[in-house]
């Protein structure tokens, strides 16, 4: 159950609860838009599992763009924000002011609190196209 809905100036994507490592899911947006991605996972209580949004910079390296600090708290870093609701089993990442150079592979990752190892991960490819010139 994956779908995209284009709203005025905003792209909203809902990703399925399946987190198997596989081919990247493809997304498309335009320069200047806002991208919001809501990821579902099995609801959790305590201990809190950190959620991270990363951009792949090479085959072996990802740059952390934003990470959740605690549940029900918006964390923002530059143009990126993340909000997590573990009781409901979803988190939302938002990128504002999309640029062509934002095109590339991204990862959502959930980390075990005790070992800091990755418990769930999802990869996708974002293509950002130039916007239509204004009249």
UniProtKB/TrEMBL annotation:
One of its GO terms (cellular component) is cell surface. Keywords: Disulfide bond, Immunoglobulin domain, Receptor, Signal. InterPro entries: Ig-like_dom_sf (IPR036179), Ig-like_fold (IPR013783), Ig_V-set (IPR013106), Immune_rcpt_domain (IPR052314). The keyword Signal applies. Residues 1-20 form the signal peptide. Residues 26-122 form the Immunoglobulin V-set domain. It comes from Pteropus alecto (Black flying fox). One of its GO terms (molecular function) is signaling receptor activity. CDD domains: IgV_pIgR_like. SUPFAM superfamilies: Immunoglobulin. Pfam families: V-set. This is Natural cytotoxicity triggering receptor 2. Gene3D superfamilies: Immunoglobulins.
